[in-house]
Amino acid sequence: MTKDNIKAFLERKNIEISAKRYGIDALSAMAQGLFCSLLIGTIINTIGTQFHIGFLVDPIANVGGVDYTVGGLAIAMTGPAMAVAIGYALKCQPMVLFSLAAVGFAANGLGGAGGPLAVLFIAIIAAEFGKAVCGETKIDILVVPLVTIGIGVALSAWWAPALGAAAMKVGNLIMWATELQPFAMGILVSVIVGMALTLPISSAAICAALALTGLAGGAAVAGCCAQMVGFAVMSFPENRWGGLISQGIGTSMLQMGNIVKNPRIWIAPTLASAITGPIATCVFHLQMNGAPVSSGMGTCGLVGQIGVYTGWVADVASGAKAAITGMDWLGLVLICFILPAILAPLINMGCRKLGWVKDGDLTL
Question: Quick one: which of 57, 81, 106, 189 could link to 219 by a disulfide (CB 3.0–4.6 Å)?
């Protein structure tokens, strides 16, 4: 088979081997799958527990001897949701897409705490092989799921434990370094994760893949909030209330087009994250001990803040924390909302005086 024939086959099958397809499209979709399973399940459980809502707290199903609440069922579907979301981003045919549910379940389960990273790699490979064979035989109903699930489950058994362990080691290294050097790592983690949130990649998926929690998770929350709230407030004169809401509780990724036109508009929220990150780690000791994916969500749907609160509740229940204090709440509000809303516009004023940012540069 010649190079031209292979190229034509891949084009016909819509298999695009590129950093954008796998590193942006698939990763971003995986984050949506995480949100629609693990994250929303965690939120449902938190609401049920804190407001004593019976039908959210009480088990509604027993599967294999394990009781599940409404939120628990959503959390149990984390692997399938991520894999199907990745398949959707890769434009899989229906049978390939549906087969990926089993692949995601296997990869996430065998990957342990680093399951999301295993799902990302394995679901991509299984999906592309499924797409390659789809439509090539008259018995697709058998061939497509056999190939997709067979390759996916085999790779899960072979790779997932190692990928999960590697992700955990990297995440643990980041968290250890943050504990050891909270100031320097507070800046580094806050800036990098915050910038990832604004870029067309998924900071949430990165944090989930690395199981990023603790002080490092708190720094990540600070960085994401600095980007979202920073852009929302400093662009208020141009975008008014619609822009404030869409960026403040939606995503700062909306500014990506403007950043490409004038990268200097990114200076203010990025410097704000470099300031709030070490304040979070060194002054308030802000920790994210909820779901790791929450570390990379910022103020999107207030998921970051709900994740921090969920961690507080879990720590109090386990005895790791005596109680939720007023200092905890003050740190959360300052780091996530007040400081970004003050720092980013002030820094941006300096950029405007230097002529780096002009009227209309932040208009959505």
Answer: 189
